[in-house]
Every structure is written in structure tokens, then in C-alpha cells.
Amino acid sequence: MTAGEFVQSGPLLELRSEQNLFYKTLCFVLLVLQGAVLDFYLIVFTDLYWCSWIATDLVVVSGWAGFFLKNSRSRRERACGFHQKSSMLGCSLGEFSYSYLAWLIYVIACTPKVVLILETNILDLVALKVPLGLTGLKVTVLLSGPLLFCLINSIVVDLNGPSRHRAHSCFLSTCLDLLDGFSLLELVLAGQVQSVYLKYTVLSVYFVALAVPVVWLYELTAAELRCRWLWARFGTGLLVNWPLLVVRFFQVLVYKQPVSVFLFKNVFFLLTGLLDLLERCSALRRLHRRARTEPAQFSHCVSENDMCPHGYVNTLAVSQS
Q1: Of 194, 214, 246, 319, which residue has the fewest beta carbons closer than 10 angstroms?
Q2: Rounded distance, CA 189 to CA 144, Å?
Q3: pLDDT tens for residues 101-136?
């Protein structure tokens, strides 16, 4: 980078840092807001020990604070020259470090609260005695989408980088899955899902969709894209779309309900996910095969004078030569 480019990028980096701070603040606001509303429902309408729910929220907030600190330290190390290997996707590695752990902590803490509310008489009491009723509960549960959006934007540095585009592509797919599952979850709340098996299938799939970001956030952190991660992504899509497709077929064929537009989304995501898996795995195999048959020859470019005592390359000497 030349001096002129550095001067031009300085204000942009400073502006991006302020935007990251804004999204980090929003993350904590959404975490506290969603946790407080769910705690309110659980504390007011049950005799469960209230300290346990507040302690759970404190653990989640502390975990996210630790994640942001570790992520910032990783970013500073990369800025000082401790670069990691670049992946086949060209992602800026380390940018999403520890993000999957933050989302995993959130899912583990949030899921039991929502399940307790939906599977007890709390749901009926919320509908009768709380302002906004079920609408307020639905909005509170759906805060997971904006929270995930703020998480991504709080750690992305380069707005035009491939990691940001990849993350937002995965985010949009996850949002569609969450809305898909929530459309059926609304039918469960309205008592329009007659079968107990279908009801628990819908509940399970919704929380699987909520946990899916753990997989693709770890994929963005991984040092190298491998076929097993592609299979993991396809497997999570299969766990979400296939059960929902079966539920919708039961609704249409057995219970004579109208066809949902999400039924076509389930079919489309299953087919495109399979095609993407085959295409990308084939491309990775070709790259690995080419790397084995045509190994890179670069050692002759480094002289003995450019080597450190322990055998590491003196990159400063190489760059100056």
C-alpha cells in the first residue's frame, strides 16, 4: 500500500470502526431487551426462581463481551503483521473468529426460555394479561434476526470484502429459514396444527434454523474450506427444509389447507443446495488434485541470507530485495 492509499483509507477505517462500535452497542441492546422480556414472562407467570433467568442473561452478555474483546485482539494482531493463511474463498481469516461461540451461547440460553413459554400455560396468560399479547411475544422471538445482522456488521472490516458478501449471503438464507419456520410456528400458536407430532416437528426445526449460523460462522473462521464444511452446510439446510416440506404436504393433502409459498421455497432450497454442494466439492477436488500434481516452486526465490536462525523467512529482507 502506498502512502497516498494509506492516507485515503485512514478516514474510511476510522469510520468503519465507529460503525462497528454502533453495531456492537446494538447487539447488547437487543440481547438485554429480548432477555428482559422473556424473563418478565417467566418470572411473572411462574414460580420459577427468578435469579436463574437473570444469571443466564448475565452469562450471555459476558460471553459476548469476551467475544468482542478476543475478536478485537485478533484484528490488532492481523494489523501488526500476524497474518493467517488465506482460504480458497479469499476470505479475510480471523475476521469472524469466535463469532460462532457467541451465537452458540445465545442459542443455548434463549431456546429453553422460548420452549417453556410455548409449552406451558404462560402462553395463554401472555395472550390475556400482557399488553400487545402474542404480538409482543412474536416480535420478541423474531429479534434473533436483527441480532444476527448486528453481530455480522459489528465485526466486518472491509465492506467490499468477500467475507462480508459471504456472511450476508448466509444471513439472508438463515433469515428465510427462520421466517419459514416461524410461519408454521404461528399456526401452532393459533392452534391450527392438529397433530402433536407436527407441532413438535415445527418447534424442533425452528430451533435448528436458529442454531444454523453456528455452522456457517465457523466455516467463515476456518483456515481452509473443505468438503466436510460444505456437507455440514447442506446437512443443516436438509434438517430445516425437508421436515418443513413434509409438514406442509400434510397440511395440504391431509388437512386441506391452502398451499404456502414457502413450500416452493423448501423445494428450491433443497435442489439448489444439492447442486451447490456437488459443484463446489468438485471444484475443491480439482484444486487439490492440481496442487498435488503442480506444486508451487518458490523456494529458489529466497536466498540463505534472507533466512532467520530458526529457518523462518525474513520477509522484510525479501520485500526489500
Answers
A1: 319
A2: 18
A3: 999 999 999 999 999 888 888 888 888 888 888 899
